[in-house]
Amino acid sequence: MINEIDKKSHEYITMRIAELINSIKESEKEILEIQHACSHPKESMKIKDMNKSGISDIRKTCGICKYVLGYPSNEEMNSWMNS
Question: Are residues 44 and 80 both part of a single domain?
Answer without folding.
Answer: yes
